[in-house]
Structure prediction request, 405 residues.
Amino acid sequence: MTSVEPQQRVISGMRPTGRLHLGHYHGVLSNWTRLQHEYECFFFVADWHALTTHYDDPFSIEENVWDMVIDWLAAGVNPGSATLFIQSRVPEHAELHLLLSMMTPLGWLERVPSYKDQQEKLKEKDLATYGFLGYPLLQSADILMYRAGHVPVGADQVSHVEITREIARRFNHLYGRDPGFEEQAEAAIAKMGKKNAKLYRNLRRRFLEQGDEEALDTARALLKEQQNISIGDRERLYGYIEGGGKVILPEPQSLLTPEARLPGTDGQKMSKSYNNTIFLREEPDSVSQKIRRMQTDPARVRRSDPGDPDKCPVWQLHAIYSDQDTQDWVQHGCRNATIGCLDCKKPLEEKVIEEQKVFRDRAREYENNPDLVRSIMDEGCDRARVQARDTLQEVRRVMGLEYRR
Ligand code: TRP
Ligand code: SF4
Prediction:
């Protein structure tokens, strides 16, 4: 297995749900464009994850995949810096998912909060399926495949990274030991003498069963004092206190995506399901119209009524898009009714359209040349697959599954 530096690696995926909007940009995508310069990044289209909820309508996925990839590229995600790929094009994800499923207790999956929440939320769909229960496990396979230390996700996905850590721990515990590790450890314990052996076993049990950190410290101190055991045995027994062997699949941490809190045109959070979005690639005229019709402080009925920016979603956009001078102008003008809402929206409109011009310019090249997008993804899939094969080969080896060749 090639060695990788988990702390330098980032993996994240997005379900292909259609065209992305400014909420996606100011949340996830701008974060990705930063991370791609600081880490070795793998970003992928989680099309199988989309299938867990859209199995009854899989034909919408294809268009959504390409639209989303063009939005990534438009937003500045750079295929020269990050590896971009499509989950289903790296079928190793399915094999790792299957192998991990063998050792995943059902209760762990049933307890993931999104399992019940989503079933509740998407009542019209039958999500009492095997695939949907396995959603977080498929995500674990996505993550562990790349041995990545960091997973940028929103708050709703943190529990999926958590279960991934538990799966990794269990996997390493089950398969991360050399053959005979246990016997060697037991033989080393015996060399410490009856009294110390008993003490060590007690401390180990307290740590493993109750997570007692004090027991861990005491057990380590005990090993340090031992004169009768070799350095190798001592190392072995250090590892044995915590359960075992070698780290094959490193435990990832979530890297919480800073919340954008971008309001939609109706003042609620911008989201496709509220139909209040401004798309990443949207024609300027349409953007102007949406902003002009945008909800303002309801107390400002007439131009002469003073308003309160804190009660106005337009202000929240100013807070993201405008410089200090403009913000001061809004605050003062709104509270003293010296500007009207349309005046207030004007500079915002310009800023949003200016930002989107960059997106639209980048996107045009890809929109006009679908083959270019296809080949970017071909190349990314190839690169991802090299990593995936490497990990999977090691997984098969430690699980004793190499006999088939
Ligand atoms: N479940 C994630 C979401 O809905 C998408 C996803 C799939 C993902 N696999 C992943 C995110 C692996 C991070 C890492 O947003
Ligand atoms: Fe909102 Fe601006 Fe109108 Fe004040 S002036 S209510 S901040 S749109």
Residues 296-297, 300, 307, 309, 312, 314-315, 330, 334, 339, 341, 344-345 surround iron/sulfur cluster (ligand 2) (CB under 6 Å). The chain is about 60% helix and 5% strand. The longest helix spans residues 370-398.
